[in-house]
């Protein structure tokens, strides 16, 4: 759910004219928390937080917990200080993916023009479904009914003439509501909003606009575009000016190109031993590579993210000589990036690995590495990792993992079978 500000003055009824309003934005309400409540009905009505224990961050919170100021991405320790009576539930990402996939199937029953933008939200263009299913408000009602009946969770739906307006409308419809913004009411709807509600306006942009006396969408729209550009830059200024006038030509794109895959983890306790951090980097690189192979993609760039005990975040990136989906290759680069990062002598709180610059594996010409060229017989690390993928798919993610022989910087990676009943 977007945490963009909503306007207290924004009405919940802007009219009933639906002509020209074919874009729906469907957003699950407190998605992770809602899934947990559907699995644990005894927690309904209580402040519930989904996330790691004391060292983690809040992934989602019920509206009862949000009333105390708890929100996603907040450190769990801060959330529990605000709401000490909250029930903390560890995340189950497998369950969330399954529900997300089910919800997306419901949306695809409505139209093929579905653009999933995250695990819990999507845009639909229902212009071609109106004759079969009725007006957009009827379609929205049917979607909400099915999501509640099949998955025990709620969603909010915004309806507008553009993706931008539909997304804003869904935010104002929360929780568990529908808001239609007729085409003729678009400007009136936008003008009552704070400028922070616009796509692309974060804290820094909002502060930059405020220095020029622009605090609302109305003030932005009434400004000269050159003034807005001087405040935030030429490209961003022109874009925000267009949004303030309701101009957003972007269509619903059913096939979004994935730009990166990544994984990160917060340690239970701050880690000063670099060998422990490197071992976690190996695990994360292995997970990234498995996702790349599953999606038949390769990555051109490896990025590592490190957060120290004082909450300072560092990111470092390097472009690969040849695009890859091999965990060992991603790990070797990530390991060097971690070793070269200036941590200021502080222990590490969080580490992450991300593969970026993705492209289809089938369209990439791959040259063998020097290690592969001189080895006799030539090892096929990629094939070995594909076999590991098959083992995990059959016996679970914990059945086999990549490990290291020692904590030395040049330690060779190995494959380790975890003792388990694989029968």
Would you spell out the secondary-structure blueprint of this structure?
Layout: E1 23-28, H1 31-39, E2 48-51, E3 58-61, H2 63-66, H3 76-82, E4 87-89, H4 93-110, E5 114-118, E6 121-125, H5 130-133, H6 136-151, E7 155-160, H7 163-173, E8 178-180, H8 186-191, H9 203-210, H10 217-221, H11 225-232, H12 234-244, E9 260-271, H13 274-294, E10 297-308, E11 313-324, H14 327-340, E12 348-360, H15 370-374, H16 381-395, E13 400-404, E14 413-417
Parallel strand pairs: 2-4, 7-8
Antiparallel strand pairs: 1-6, 1-7, 2-3, 5-6, 9-12, 10-11, 10-12, 13-14
Helix pairs in contact: 4-6, 11-12, 13-14
Task: Write structural notes for this entry.
The protein has 423 residues and is α+β, with helices and mostly antiparallel strands. Helices cover 38% and strands 22% of the residues. It has 16 helices and 14 strands. It has helices at residues 31-39, 63-66, 76-82, 93-110, 130-133, 136-151, 163-173, 186-191, 203-210, 217-221, 225-232, 234-244, 274-294, 327-340, 370-374, 381-395, and strands at 23-28, 48-51, 58-61, 87-89, 114-118, 121-125, 155-160, 178-180, 260-271, 297-308, 313-324, 348-360, 400-404, 413-417. The chain has a five-stranded mixed beta sheet. α11 (225-232) packs across α12. It is globular and about 60 Å long. The chain starts with 22 loop residues before the first strand and ends in a 6-residue tail after the last strand. 38% of the residues are buried.
């Amino acid at each position: 759910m977007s945490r963009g500000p909503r306007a207290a003055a924004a009405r919940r009824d802007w009219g009933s004219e639906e002509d020209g309003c074919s874009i729906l934005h469907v957003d699950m309400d407190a998605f992770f928390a809602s899934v947990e409540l559907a699995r644990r009905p005894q927690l309904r009505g209580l402040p519930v937080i989904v996330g790691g224990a004391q060292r983690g961050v809040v992934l989602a919170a019920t509206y009862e917990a949000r009333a105390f100021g708890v929100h996603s991405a907040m450190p769990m320790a801060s959330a529990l200080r605000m709401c000490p009576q909250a029930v903390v539930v560890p995340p189950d990402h497998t369950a969330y993916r399954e529900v997300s996939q089910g919800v997306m199937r419901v949306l695809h029953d409505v139209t093929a023009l579905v653009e999933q933008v995250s695990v819990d939200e999507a845009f639909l263009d229902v212009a071609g479904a109106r004759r079969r299913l009725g007006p957009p408000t009827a379609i929205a009602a049917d979607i909400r009914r099915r999501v509640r009946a099949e998955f025990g969770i709620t969603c909010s739906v915004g309806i507008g003439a553009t993706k931008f307006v539909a997304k804003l409308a869904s935010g104002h419809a929360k929780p568990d509501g529908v808001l239609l913004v007729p085409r003729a009411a678009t400007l009136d709807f936008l003008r009552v909003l704070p400028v922070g509600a616009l796509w692309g306006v974060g804290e820094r942009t909002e502060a930059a606009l405020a220095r020029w006396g622009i605090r609302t969408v109305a003030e932005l729209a009434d400004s000269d575009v050159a003034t807005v550009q001087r405040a935030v830059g030429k490209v961003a200024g022109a874009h925000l000016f267009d949004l303030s006038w309701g101009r957003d030509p972007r269509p619903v794109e059913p096939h979004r190109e994935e730009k990166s895959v990544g994984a990160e983890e917060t340690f239970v306790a701050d880690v000063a031993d670099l060998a422990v951090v490197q071992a976690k980097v190996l695990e994360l690189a292995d997970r990234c590579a498995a996702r790349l192979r599953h999606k038949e993609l390769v990555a051109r760039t490896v990025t590592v993210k490190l957060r120290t005990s004082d909450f300072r975040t560092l990111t470092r990136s390097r472009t690969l000589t040849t695009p890859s989906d091999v965990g060992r290759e991603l790990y070797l680069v990530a390991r060097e990036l971690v070793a070269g990062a200036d941590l200021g002598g502080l222990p590490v709180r969080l580490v992450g690995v991300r593969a970026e610059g993705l492209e289809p594996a089938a369209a990439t010409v791959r040259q063998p590495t020097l290690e592969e060229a001189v080895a006799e017989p030539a090892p096929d690390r990629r094939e070995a990792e594909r076999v590991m993928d098959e083992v995990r798919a059959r016996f679970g993610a914990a059945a086999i993992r990549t490990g290291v022989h020692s904590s030395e910087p040049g330690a060779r990676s190995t494959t380790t079978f975890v003792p388990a009943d694989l029968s």
